[in-house]
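Thread: Modeling a multi-component assembly for a lab meeting

Hi all, long-time lurker, first post. My supervisor asked me to bring a structural picture of a complex we are working on to next week's group meeting, and I have zero experience with this. I have the sequence lines for every component (639 residues in total). Could someone generate the structure of the whole assembly? Inputs are pasted exactly as I received them:
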Amino acid sequence: MSTKSQSIDRKSQDERLRRVSKLKKLLNRPELGALGGSILVFIFFGIIAGDSGMFSAYGTLNFLEVSSNLGIIAIGAAMLMIGGEFDLSVGSMIGFAGICIAIPAIYWGWPLWSSILFAFSMAVLIGYANGILVVRTGLPSFIVTLAMLFILRGATLALTRLITGRTQVPGLRVLIENDPIAWIFSADVFSGLFVWLGSLGLIALRQDGTPLATGVPTSVIWWIGLTIFATWILMKTRYGNWIFASGGDKLGARNVGVPVARVKISLFIGTAVCATIYACVQVLDAGSADTMRGFLKELEAIVAAVVGGCLLTGGYGSAIGAAFGALIFGTVSMGIYYTDVDTDWFKVFLGAMMLIAVIFNNFVRRRVTENK
Amino acid sequence: MNTDTIVEFNNISKFFGSVIALKNVTMHVKKGEIMCLLGDNGAGKSTLIKTLSGVHKPNEGEIIVEGKKTTFDSPRDALDLGIATVYQDLALVSLMSVTRNFFMGREPMKGFGLFKVFDIEKANAVAAERMGQIGIDVRDPSQAVGTMSGGERQCLAISRAIYFGAKVLILDEPTSALGVHQASVVLKYIVKAASEGLGVILITHNVHHAYPVGDRFTILNRGKSMGTYPKKDLSREKLLSMMAGGEELDKLEVELKEMDRISKFNN
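Re: Modeling a multi-component assembly
Sure thing. I ran the full set together rather than chain by chain. Output:
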């Protein structure tokens, strides 16, 4: 009798607790900060630059393209950061992957698709090298990949100059047209839709009647696709659980049978592959490879991941957050041209945003681990 | 030995270079029994645990599991034979949820082939049920382990080991970081686990925690076993004095009395 009333009592109490904890759960999500930040940024530019064409089809695609490029590498960086490591060689890897595509295709006569595959296999190799060095030596990944940053950038420059005598490799554009796989990285998507919208007079047209915005760049599709894929891995798969565990406490994870070394190595391969996707998009879009491509991108990727709620110490974060981090970055870097603000201030904003994000993340971590 | 014996460790020795960390340590544990391994800091407890759980290979001696002589090449081998160790750090990730910790490394799966996914609903249900069984009301199994108390975390780690088929539980100082109430919760749970047929090796330096729950006591001192005694042959005081120098404690008592006398004199 008394036990029964007790259990009923407990149940009703339980339900009350659950309602609170749902709100709390939302507050504890890692991507909350970046989501809120994105909304603020859009409100800000909506007021300041709403009638300047920033949010026209052309303007929107413009900032989405910048966001998506960064987003591709930010997602790799976020996954690795959740796994407890950094990769500072991402930017150099972009440059290296670029010439891995361009030199075989133009100087050695390889078909473009085979040089793209070659670039991806080099990425796997370099990611593996980064991973195995970090795992075997136990050195901080910060140092190991900093070394790789210089090695790769130096090798890119030296090899390109050795083979071609210069630092840029142009001439890819003609090869793209007949290539079976280049469209994966370079085509515009939904261009029919844009022509139709243009014919209805809903979006701006050029003088010849074609729409100013020709279609959604593939990089945007990659960005969204990678975000969904990474989120699925993190939330829904065993491997995702291992990533959180490896980053949260690698000794504990190892003690219960998580293959920490394998997880970390695969994440390093992931960042290098993301860098190569970025390189493909950029090189095929520009039609040329440049040895300095991707310079400082590793830091931007880390900023996006951190703004997206990843803890620098690992074990916590989200891919959706990183995607929003990249969106903030891209929107502000493009949006600033539509305002009266001198673009020199962009980096000030970037640094301040990162600082605020880190302070906020620290607060979230304390909430998650210490509320009782 | 009777058939109830799950694990025997006979004449285990472990050397690190010229250091003799363990010398001829013999012990065994039966089903449903709590075997307490007592020793002061530096007695070789940690080395012994690591040898029992497969982290170190003993230089001498044999390990017999359910009547069969075996060697452990890795912690995995010991685990496969049902010998689970709960270390002091508990192998819990405080940023991860109760469920994700419970199934860390051994996630239940659903689906086929490439689309096999972590069955989080089942995992949540099991984790909540298991924690409920030991009287810990996990309001939400997706809450982070960091929000739990020390005793609850200890219980989670033990409960996880049992769920994944442990026959022998090796518990490394499960109560050392806990307050009185929390420690008693954990000890109660350990007794319950043993009463359900598990063999427990409880490693501690706290006689007051070990004595009420233990069935037999092995005392380790400077890498050597001082013998194993059933509870009936041993009083709490005797156990206390056998651990790392009863003389030292006697000496301390004398010194304290002396200090007391002096302070009284000064007043």
